[in-house]
Write a structure and sequence with these properties.
Blueprint: H1 3-18, H2 22-35, H3 43-50
Length: about 55
């Protein structure tokens, strides 16, 4: 496993905490409204928005 993959998994608990916050809930709702589907922001979307360097 590459270092980036390991680093990503370190961020997962941070994501889990974030989505419980008011800001996190707003962010999930924003993703849902942007995609126009039932899908709200997930861990991959979180990385895309806040840690784009992890997706290279």
């Amino acid at each position: 496993m590459s270092d980036i993959c390991k680093d990503r998994e370190v961020l997962r608990p941070k994501y889990e905490q974030f989505v419980q916050t008011e800001r996190g809930k707003e962010w999930k709702h924003f993703w849902q409204s942007q995609t126009g589907s039932e899908r709200s922001g997930d861990f991959g979307d979180y990385l895309y928005d806040f840690y784009p360097e992890m997706l290279q």
